[in-house]
Design goal:
There is one protein chain. With about 475 residues, this protein is of the alpha/beta class. It is built from 16 helices and 17 strands. Strand 5 (about 110-115) and strand 6 form a beta hairpin.
């Protein structure tokens, strides 16, 4: 098998993989074989190559751990077409033969509107309380026409701040230059796609022989929609015991729970309650990985800061996932995939690309995939596995930081696709019959995209169907 991929159609993925490998500070990992072509999606951004590189980094680091446990290596491959399709895996779900509805398609508070100063702003009322709050702030009815008229009365930047002031969601559609010169853009200017830092001392991790790379790795997944759960799902595919923890009553999106719940268990704990917090501390003491996608500092207020976690479980890997980064004036703002694309300049460039191609007026558009969400999840998982590998080699407790906006900046830093090679349309299910699997769930038979990484001796697999939220007890299986 050829592992270099220095030239030809997979070059972007190979170069992006090498760059990520340097970022996480591991002696050069053997790269996967990257196969297939990019571009695949109608976008100038090489999202397939970026997704393949992020997935490949996690797979190669997992293989290093497996070599430590088994003494043998294996072949690894990532097909760019499958990696690209994984960026829309939620859209490929079939439940009893039928597509699962997408809630955002009927939610008019999720979309791009033009403000009175000529700038566009992306609103995001993705949860019921955000939808209500957005309509109340704007004094609008729940129709596109009413929202458009209400937004047109505002200055876009003032509306952005007003939304944030009420803990609602929205972002002005900026050019890449406007983002770079904004206070938050400057705060995130030097942020790598994965930040990996040692936060404490601990002896090296010793793992027994195993049939999978991450067997026995206990992972707490405190995340919702969509990047964070994708990270936990990725770790589960390599054999980790992943326990999702969520407070009862928190809003969620059933479609995404089906997609990203594969391979996991789910329990309810309210960390604001003393007994539940004590149960969580007991879980942390035996955990290896803790994934947190709440706003920076939110769990620290409940006693679960990275430092507190490292004291409870020396050697733990704390994975922090957010929209805008952990520093800067926007660090505590709520965010979504669409807002990261809008704020950082991706939506402007995608809109210009579409307008030029079809001779239309240039208006902001989103990349036709949840690229920032899923790729951020893959980067988070790769960072977690890299941190585990570093713990095996040198000990220590570790913190991994990723964000949707850092991922967006990384996508923009990669070479663009050649305009003449970009396809008009894309069918994410085409040619991927061998990548689909099915399982029985409490809601019916689910057909889903399987893990797209290929490993010759420990093929990634999700061993459990997505659970009903809160269906399991908050305890470890092993």
């Amino acid at each position: 098998m050829e592992y270099t991929a220095k030239t030809g159609k997979s070059m972007i993925a190979a170069e992006a993989f090498a760059s990520l490998n340097r970022t996480v500070g591991i002696a050069p990992l053997r790269p996967p074989e990257f196969s297939g072509d990019d571009p695949l999606l109608p976008t100038p951004f090489c999202v397939a190559g970026a997704a393949a590189a992020a997935l490949g980094l996690g797979a190669s680091a997992a293989d290093e751990i497996w070599q430590c446990r088994s003494g043998t290596r294996q072949d690894i491959g990532v097909d760019l077409s499958a990696a690209a399709s994984s960026l829309l895996s939620f859209a490929l779900l079939r439940l009893d033969g039928n597509p699962v509805p997408r809630p955002a398609e009927s939610n008019v508070t999720v979309g791009i509107y033009c403000a009175g100063d000529g700038h566009h702003i992306h609103l995001h009322g993705g949860f019921p309380h955000l939808e209500r709050g957005t309509l109340e702030l704007l004094g609008a009815q729940n129709t596109p026409e009413s929202l458009a008229a209400a937004v047109a009365k505002w200055n876009a930047f003032e509306l952005e701040d007003a939304l944030a002031g009420r803990n609602l969601c929205g972002a002005v559609v900026r050019t890449a230059e406007e983002w770079r010169t904004s206070p938050q853009g400057r705060a995130l200017a030097d942020a790598p796609p994965i930040k990996l830092v040692r936060i404490g001392d601990a002896p090296p991790l010793r793992l027994a022989d195993s049939a999978t790379p991450l067997d026995g790795i206990r992972t707490l997944d405190l995340t919702r929609v969509l990047a964070g759960p994708s990270a936990g799902r990725t770790l589960a595919s390599y054999g980790a015991d992943v326990l999702g923890i969520r407070a009862p009553g928190l809003p969620t999106i059933a479609l995404f729970d089906l997609d990203t719940g594969l391979g996991k268990r789910s329990a309810f704990l309210d960390l604001a309650k003393a007994n539940d917090a004590q149960t969580m501390r007991a879980l942390v003491r035996d955990a290896h990985v803790f994934i947190d996608s709440y706003r920076p500092g939110a769990l620290a207020k409940l006693g679960f800061s990275p430092q507190a976690l490292a004291e409870l479980s020396p050697g733990i890997v704390h994975v922090a996932i957010c929209c805008y980064g952990s520093e800067g004036p926007w660090a505590n703002r709520r965010g979504w995939e669409q807002l990261a694309q809008s704020a950082t300049g991706i939506a402007v460039e995608q809109g210009a690309f579409t307008a030029k191609r079809y001779g239309e007026d240039a208006v902001p558009k989103l990349v036709p995939a949840a690229a920032c969400d899923y790729i951020t999840g893959y980067l988070a998982a790769a960072g977690a596995i890299a941190a585990l590998l570093r713990r095996i080699r040198e000990g220590g407790s570790w913190r991994v930081e990723v964000s949707l906006c850092a991922t967006a900046q990384w996508l923009q830093s990669l070479a663009r696709s050649e305009p003449g090679r970009i396809p008009e349309n894309w069918n994410p299910a085409a040619g991927l019959d061998g990548y689909f699997q099915s399982c029985e769930t409490t809601r019916g038979r689910l057909v889903h995209l399987a893990p797209v990484v290929r490993m010759s001796k420990t093929p990634p697999v999700w061993r459990m169907p997505p659970p009903e939220q809160g269906a399991d007890q908050p305890r470890w299986q092993i």
